[in-house]
From TrEMBL:
Record organism: Vidua macroura (Pin-tailed whydah)
InterPro entries associated with the record: Cupin_8, JmjC_dom, JMJD6_ArgDemeth/LysHydrox
GO molecular function: cis-regulatory region sequence-specific DNA binding
The protein, known as: JMJD8 protein
Domain JmjC: 99-233
Gene3D superfamilies found in the cross-reference section: Cupin
Pfam families: Cupin_8
Gene that produces this protein: Jmjd8
Recorded GO CC terms: nucleus
Amino acid sequence: LAGTGPEEPRCTVERADASLTYSLFLQRFAFSRPVILGGVTDNSAFRALCTREKLLAAFGPFPVRLSTANTYSYRKVDVPFQEYVEHLLKPQDPARLGSDTLYFFGDNNFTEWGPLFQHYVPPPFRIPGTSPAYSWGCAGSGSGVPFHWHGPGFSEVIFGRKRWFLYPPDQTPHFHPNETTLAWLQHTYPTLPPAQRPLECTLRPGEVLYFPDRWWHATLNLDTSVFISTFLG
C-alpha cells in the first residue's frame, strides 16, 4: 500500500551501478562511506514469493518475533505471522512512542523461513573476514527503526520505498531513543542546520544500500514495505 511519507528533496548518498568492481568497492566504500547499488542483483523470483498472498499461504501460522521500534530497549513479542499482517501491519501513529510500536524485522527463524531465503540473491560484495546473515521484514508506512549502529551490511527493498538517514561514527545524531523515526523527521529534522543534516536517500525496489561498520542509521518506510538485509558479522 502506498504511503504518504515525504521523500527527501535530493539523494545525498553516492550511487554506483553494476560496473563497480569488487576491488573498487573495497577501496572506495567498504570501510569509509555508504553507497547505493543499482542493478547488482536480480531478485524478481524472490519478489514474486514476497507478495501478501504468497507469504500468508506459506508462513501464516508461523510465529514471528516483533521488536519495539526504539533504540535502547529490546522488548520482544511473539505473534502468528497472519495476525501481524492482518492486525498490526498498519501505518505508524505519529503520536505513539517507539516502546509502544511493534516492528517485524530481523528475528527470523531460519528453519521455517529458510526456503524463502534460498531464493534471495545477495549483493556480490563481501568484507574480508566476515560472513553474511539475512534479516527479513515487512512493515507499514511511516514505520521504521530510529538511530542505532552495528556492523556493516547491505539492505535491499523488495516492495515499497524506504528512506534512510545516515551519520558517520564520529557524528552522533541528536535524537530521543524512544522517539520513532517519523516523530524525529517531523520534530527534529526541520531544526537541523544544513551542515548537521544526515546523508539520506530513498531506496526503491531492486536498490541496495551498503553501510559501513558503526555508521549511525535510521529508516522510514514510506509505503507498506518488504525488505531484507545482509549483515556482515
